Amino acid sequence: MKRAGEFIKRYNGQDMKTFLSTDRNIYWRYKVIIVTGATGKLGHGIVNNLLERIPAEKIGVSVRDTSKANDLKVCGVRVMQGDYKDANSLAHAFEGASQVLIVSSSTTEGDALIQHRTAIESAKLAGASRILYTSHIGAKPNSGFADHAATEAILKESGVAFTSLRNGFYASSAIWYLKEALETGELIAPQDGPVSWAAHADLAEIAAVALVNEGCLDGITPPLAPIESLNFENLAAIASEITGRSIKRITLSDEDFVKHMVAKGYPEQYAKLFLGLFIASRNGELESVDSTFEHLLGRKPISVRDLLVNELNKGVL
């Protein structure tokens, strides 16, 4: 009631549009949901899904380059500059947040974990009552996704209610590999295992559902990925079936795969990151047997087959 009374007192008969455009007003303080990384594929998708569910004035974004978020600003979304490497910028960007969704850092320069800690601490200082984080299905301390596991530990220690979205491996990665395979007729990779590939669109929708339905996903979530899992042999077969082109699966040793990627022009550190996918899949870390994903979507998830057909129809492949 105190918050409602303060809102009414501050509003005091102003034109609502004028009031909502006033920086640092009480409406933002108690109502806004902040999404970081909103110029990226996942973050932008989350905001678009939120716009279908709640008024634009209840949504804010924190982005490094505000000029890249003009489309969101036009929709009425609050656009603020914020950088995980600058706590002061986050303090301003997160001001008034009731919830903050932190899209995991994709940095190749510096320490992602330090950036995540800065974002979490900034959200807490801003008074957010809940923090959401885009984690990974393979988050374990001794894995290629250790930063995600460590970030979850920071969330637990924060004292703030949190949701760690353990997202499946991006299906766009599978499409990326298939694009080259369709050009060469060979799908070259190390020994792999089954992966539950998740589409960005589905992950964005579930994140939005979690934001507007507090309590539907609390703490560390079950794997957010389809039950269907595919290895690279399966991917080659699907691509061959859809296109009518013959695609052969070529298996390299881990060492030869790194050399293969370096020879194609990728830095060794990137080649080793790519290798991490295959090691994790061999260890069974990227496969889901949980129905939560489909239950939250209320429909069948978008499949790799669906994505591949869509890319072919667009003439991308």
Layout of helices and strands:
Elements: H1 2-11, H2 16-21, H3 26-31, E1 32-36, H4 41-51, E2 59-63, H5 70-74, E3 78-81, H6 87-93, E4 97-102, H7 112-125, E5 130-136, H8 146-158, E6 161-167, H9 171-184, E7 186-190, H10 200-212, E8 219-220, H11 232-243, E9 248-252, H12 254-263, H13 268-282, H14 292-297, H15 304-313
Parallel strand pairs: 1-2, 1-4, 2-3, 4-5, 5-6, 6-8, 7-9
Helix pairs in contact: 4-10, 6-7, 7-8, 9-11, 11-15, 12-13
In short:
The chain has helices at 2-11, 16-21, 26-31, 41-51, 70-74, 87-93, 112-125, 146-158, 171-184, 200-212, 232-243, 254-263, 268-282, 292-297, 304-313; strands at 32-36, 59-63, 78-81, 97-102, 130-136, 161-167, 186-190, 219-220, 248-252. The chain has 317 residues and is α/β, with parallel strands linked by helices.
Task: Name its key features.
317 residues; Rossmann fold; alpha/beta; globular; UDP-galactose 4-epimerase, domain 1
Structural notes for this entry:
This protein is of the alpha/beta class. 48% of the residues lie in helices and 15% in strands. The protein folds into 2 domains: 166 residues, 3-Layer(aba) Sandwich (Rossmann fold), CATH 3.40.50; 108 residues, Alpha-Beta Complex (UDP-galactose 4-epimerase, domain 1), CATH 3.90.25.10. The chain is globular, with a radius of gyration of 21 Å. The protein starts with a helix and ends with a helix.
Low-confidence stretches: 1-29
Proportion in β-strands: 5-15%
Based on the structure given, which CATH architecture of the largest domain is correct? 3-Layer(aba) Sandwich
The oligomeric state is: single chain
Proportion of helical residues: 40-55%
Distance between the termini: 57 Å
Mean pLDDT, nearest integer?
90
* Strand order, largest beta sheet: 3-2-1-4-5-6-8
CATH superfamily of the largest domain: NAD(P)-binding Rossmann-like Domain
The total domain count is 2
List the secondary-structure elements in sequence, H or E: HHHEHEHEHEHEHEHEHEHEHHHH
> What about the largest sheet?
7 strands, parallel
